[in-house]
Amino acid sequence: MVLAYVSNSQSQTISIIDTATHAVIATVSVEGPPDTIAITPDGKLAYVLFADDASDMAFVSVIDVKTHSVIATVPLGIDLNFVNGITFTTNGKLAYATNAGSNNISVIDTKTHSVIATVNVGGRPVFVDFTPDGKLAYVVNRGSNNISVIDTKTHSVIATVPVGSVPVAFVFTPDGKLAYVANEGSFDNPSNTVSVIDTKTHSVITTVRVGNEPCDVKITPDGKLAYVVNTSDASVSVVDVKTNITISTVFVSSGSTPPTGITISPDGKLVYINSSTGDAVTVIDTKTHAVVATVQVGNNQLFSEFTPDGKFACVGNVVEGTVSVIDVKTHSVIATIDVGDRPLVIAFTPY
Q1: Number of Cβ atoms within 10 Å of the Cβ of 144
Q2: pLDDT tens-digit map of 220-263
Q3: DSSP letter string over 76-87?
Q4: Nearest to 185 by CA among 194, 177, 173, 176
Q5: HSE (CB half, 13 Å, CA atoms) of 2?
Q6: Which CB contacts under 8 angstroms, 24+ apart, belong to 151-156?
């Protein structure tokens, strides 16, 4: 049974959804506004990152997926209301969590649910992920315009890679040879670049010009195309990974509802674009780079993600406190699930 875990930041709860019945089967309370959720590769544990407003400290609630209960709380670093990220190594033995307020990474042993190392990185780290082989972790430092590269064996920074202005997201190619970094820029001076890093040399090998204010980037499962969401231009840039040239620009919404998030179906055939200020999801065909559908959902979506089997897409609607379930085959909403206040993030168990 595949479960979806949804963090509801205002109600300080996690809604657990059975993806077969599209029904909430449990609600778990946490001790602060939940941010990011990550689920161990074996599907047994969910790690929920939350902040304690009184102390400005970040914590992780560890939820047993079988019992839907919190079994441990792990203290981390200073949060200061900055976006934080958490992810697991491929073997599930370690979790890395970013502490944007204290400019470091907490390394958590998932067997003992304790911090075993703290790694100092750049300014305002907001996102972390591992190379496919699990040997390296890349950390996006939004405040210092660079990427910290951590050796996961020694938990030490082995390289710092300067990128563009205000990096906010990145993705590895499936073979792990390249990392694509979206450089958003500031409100007054938006950027329009993606930095491409060679993970062998830890250096930028090229900079790709895209639309204004790129806020997210994803790569198709075959590794051939990178899709970049450009908020200010209300567009998506399609980049050929082989040549690092933008081969198409897809306009997806009006300026009043700019795109803010992207997800690609497991088979690589479709791209879903959501907007944190809009009421619809835009569907792009990766073969034609054309918009093939616009699906009306709720207002102000902060996530859109495909189920592991690729049959459905789940979209979080902030205003209504709901999750819209879209049938990928028909591009139609087949269920609307009431969750908590301000659904922020979704994560799925692997099976």
Answers
A1: 17
A2: 999 999 999 999 989 999 999 999 999 999 999 755 578 999 99
A3: EEE-TT----EE
A4: 194
A5: 15
A6: 152/89, 152/94, 155/107, 155/116, 155/117, 155/119, 156/119
